[in-house]
């Protein structure tokens, strides 16, 4: 079997193969030279099946080349499926700092819960606190509760850093939110704060009417004490 036939076989496995066959095909493409693998993956980003497109963008993260980055940029511009965009965000982050502006733009342009939660989770691991704070503020306005909760938890990495005061201002408001889940996540996030403001908020949450909030606040106080 020549190289072109082998590439066609891998493409067919990604289009119509079982889960295991698709994974094997992705692994094989990851080992191949980028100039051979990236065009195959690029073609698959146009497939009708969103699962195939998702696999394609996942594979692009294995080839950190300019061509692969450009394909991922094109995916952000044309893709509408949140599952595919979430995977594209993960692959983009493999390229490092150059991906951060694109991820920030993606968060503001897309409302799908999975895309937004993925971007928040990615930026929690990145050293871009100002960008993180910006998307947290937007995420806190999201109508999907899980996105809002992820945004609350994303305030954690900002504790004890240059944007701690801004983060605490948001947590002060969230600590008295009507929705108990907001207060619950706030208590968890405050476990990472060693400031007097954070400790007072935790003390207040220990007296909350909701037992889930109280349990989270008590656990946070224990964790907080270990950091002090």
Describe this structure in words.
- With 228 residues, the protein is mainly α.
- The protein has a domain at 155-228: Leucine-rich Repeat Variant (Alpha Horseshoe).
- Helix content is 72%, strand content 0%.
- It has helices spanning 3-16, 19-31, 34-44, 50-60, 66-78, 82-93, 100-109, 113-124, 129-139, 145-153, 164-174, 180-190, 196-205, 211-227.
- The longest helix has 17 residues, at 211-227.
- It is elongated and about 70 Å long.
- It starts with a helix and ends with a helix.
Write a concise keyword list for the protein shown above.
Leucine-rich Repeat Variant, 228 residues, mainly alpha, 14 helices
């Amino acid at each position: 079997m020549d190289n072109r036939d082998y590439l066609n076989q891998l493409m067919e496995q990604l289009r119509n193969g079982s889960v295991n066959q698709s994974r094997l095909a992705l692994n094989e493409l990851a080992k191949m030279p980028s100039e051979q693998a990236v065009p195959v993956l690029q073609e698959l980003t146009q497939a009708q099946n969103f699962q195939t497109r998702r696999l394609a963008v996942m594979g692009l993260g294995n080839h950190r080349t300019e061509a692969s980055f450009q394909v991922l940029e094109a995916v952000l511009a044309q893709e509408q499926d949140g599952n595919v965009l979430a995977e594209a965000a993960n692959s983009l982050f493999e390229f490092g700092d150059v991906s951060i502006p694109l991820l920030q733009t993606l968060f503001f342009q897309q409302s799908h819960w999975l895309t937004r939660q993925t971007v928040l989770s990615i930026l929690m691991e990145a050293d871009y606190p100002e960008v993180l704070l910006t998307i947290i503020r937007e995420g806190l306005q999201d109508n999907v509760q899980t996105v809002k909760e992820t945004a609350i938890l994303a305030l954690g990495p900002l504790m004890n850093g240059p944007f701690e005061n801004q983060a605490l201002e948001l947590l002060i408001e969230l600590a008295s939110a009507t929705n108990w889940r907001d207060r619950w996540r706030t208590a968890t996030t405050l476990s990472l704060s060693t400031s007097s403001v954070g400790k007072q908020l935790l003390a207040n949450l220990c007296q909350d009417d909701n037992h889930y909030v109280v349990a989270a606040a008590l656990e946070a106080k224990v964790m907080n004490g270990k950091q002090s």
